[in-house]
Design goal:
It is a single chain. With 349 residues, the chain is an alpha/beta fold. It contains 4 helices and 41 strands. It has a 12-stranded mixed beta sheet. β1 (2-4) and β2 form a beta hairpin. It is flat.
Length: 349
């Protein structure tokens, strides 16, 4: 690897080895970065998943194209792999800027004497680390991060600016939490009595397992008792609300503006599209999908594809949508039939 202009340069041959691909071209070619086909440059690589994209990439300025193994020839240097998109994703991480990697502790940070700090951590301006917090090795705390009392953060985790981790919460290894997200705020729990709402104390915590990524402005509420849990490998988009005592399994994908109400349970490998609402105490079984803007009001069986309001079988919902679109014509037809019927009744009488 060579460096220049504060960016890494990798030889094409090294990149091929990194993704276990077959390079057809110059192994000494230096690649400065990764980009889409339209944005390509002579010293950048791109990827093409199908024949059309390959043709588009060949017309571009890209110096190297990642393609599938069935591509036999090209006018450009190519890197043949089993999964072009996956190979591109892995290589693109090599060029990911790391603006907050700055080992050391900024003088404006406030750190309790009882906190335990790991090795090689980056603590930026105006970070607060409260009493008895534990910070693992290589953790990055960007400007304005707050780490509450008794919080545990695993190794290689990155908290972007103004992230708040409230007391007693647990964050695993290799977790990324983007700007403005709050982990461990009180869950929304009240007892309604005449003329008032009496708060139920939220005495639990939040556990975020390893390799989770949480987008910007996400809220994960602490449990009333026990733990709100986000499972290993789950990826959460921006502006998602996860309420108290929710349990989310491994490798789920939860898209922006979704709201998951208290004590609901999502098993592993679930996809929740944008603006989905899930009511409290619902269970969504493994490998299920919920389409955007759906409202889940009852349990979802394993392997299902649900949509609609209320959500039910997606293909049944599509049929019902088709019928609903025909309703204006059907109403008009019924009105015409009623007029004809009245005329017939008038003649008979």
């Amino acid at each position: 690897m060579e460096t220049g202009s504060n960016k890494s340069l990798y030889k094409a041959g090294k990149l091929a080895s990194y993704v276990k691909g077959e390079l057809i071209g110059d192994p000494e070619r230096l690649i400065r970065g990764a980009c889409g086909i339209k944005e390509s440059k002579t010293d950048y690589l791109t990827f093409a998943e199908n024949d059309k994209k390959v043709k588009d990439a060949e017309k571009s300025r890209a110096g190297l194209i990642i393609v599938s193994r069935d591509v036999t020839e090209s006018s450009k240097d190519i890197l043949k792999v089993d999964n072009p998109r996956l190979a591109y994703a892995k290589i693109s991480q090599l060029y990911q800027p790391q603006p907050f990697v700055k080992p050391g502790i900024h003088s404006s940070s406030v750190i309790s004497n009882s906190a335990h700090l790991g090795k090689n951590i980056s603590v930026h301006p105006h970070v607060v680390i409260a009493e008895k917090a534990e910070i693992g090795d290589n953790v990055i705390l960007a400007p304005g991060v707050y780490v509450g009392a008794g919080v545990k953060i695993g190794e290689n985790t990155i908290l972007h600016p103004n992230v708040v981790i409230e007391y007693d919460c647990v964050i695993g290894n290799n977790v990324i939490i983007h700007a403005g997200s709050i982990i461990g705020a009180d869950g929304y729990g009240y007892v309604t009595v005449p003329d008032s709402h009496y708060k139920i104390s939220q005495l639990g915590n939040v556990i975020i397992h390893d390799n989770v990524e949480i987008g910007a402005s996400v809220t994960v509420d602490r449990a009333a008792s026990g733990s709100t849990i986000v499972g290993e490998g789950t990826k959460i988009d921006n502006l998602v609300q996860i309420a108290h005592n929710v349990k989310i399994g491994k490798n789920c994908l939860i898209i922006a503006q979704t709201g998951i109400a208290g004590s609901s349970k999502l098993e592993e490998d679930i996809i929740i599209a944008g603006q989905v609402g899930i009511v409290d105490h619902v269970e969504v079984a493994r490998k299920s999908k919920v389409a955007s803007k759906s409202l889940v009001t009852k349990d979802v069986p394993a392997g299902s594809y649900y949509s609609g309001n209320p959500a039910h079988n997606h293909f049944r919902e599509l049929k019902e949508q088709a019928i609903r679109r025909r309703l204006p014509k059907l109403v008009k037809k019924i009105e015409e039939l009623e007029r004809k019927l009245k005329k017939l009744e008038g003649k008979i009488s």
